[in-house]
Amino acid sequence: MSKLMLSSFAVLEPVSDGFRNFLLKNYTVSPEEMMLDKAQLLGLSAPEMTVLVGGLRSMGVSSDDRGLFTDGSSLSTGFFTTLLDMNVQWKATGSNSYEAHDRASGELVRRASRYDLVFGSNSQLRAIAEVYAQDDNKDKFVQDFISAWNKVMNADRFDLA
Ligand code: HEM
Question: What is the CB < 6 Å shell around ligand 1?
Fold first, then answer.
């Protein structure tokens, strides 16, 4: 690609996309605040943002291994059930990276970003994560994911009434 084309596209490059766990570099604003901002611009409610992020992670969507708590083969509530697992202790390893170690063995079991962990640390988002982690809410999770997914796919579709 020519240099001119690259520079004209460069301004379009997203700097932060919490839905796919992507942060270009560190900013003064926290990653989770940027995710919330983008969700609001997409017209998503807090439950819709939550179900989308959790569902996308369960299907293996992340810029690396952070936030991938399941084998990534299916749409499941695994992101939420694992996030709320109290058997691990989270430790910061960078400004947007955390490692979970088993409390008993000290073994490293998973990694996550601030985009992921905010669903456990923010009280309002945690309340929503707990709803989706409930054993009897697997169907609700799938239905809500489908609705939120359709909402994003149809956003700005002026041809729809
Ligand atoms: C519910 C599902 C999805 C959500 C919540 C979502 C959300 C986002 C967000 C927040 C950005 C960053 C925009 C920015 O910062 O400027 C983005 C970028 C992008 N998304 Fe998605 N996305 C979804 C599905 C998809 C799908 C299915 C595709 C392709 C078929 C797609 C293609 C893209 C592309 C190409 C970009 C980069 C270009 C741009 O910023 O406009 N996304 N998405």
Answer: 14, 17, 19, 38, 52, 149, 152
The closest alpha carbon to 53, from 24, 27, 75, 33, belongs to: 75
Q: How far is the CA of 56 from the centre of ligand 1 (A)?
A: 12
CB-CB contact of 19 with 79 (8 Å):
no
Domains, the chain: 15-153 (1.10.420.10)
Q: Which residue CA neighbors atom 14 of ligand 1 most closely?
A: 14
Whether the pTM exceeds 0.85: the reply is yes
| Ligand 1 atom nearest residue 15's Cα | 15
Fill in the amino acid letter for 156.
D
| pLDDT 10s digits, 4-60 | 778 888 888 899 999 999 999 999 999 999 999 999 999 999 999 999 999 999 999
Query: Of 52, 61, 34, 54, nearest to 117 (Cα)?
Result: 54
Q: Which element (helix H / strand E) includes 108? A: strand 108-112
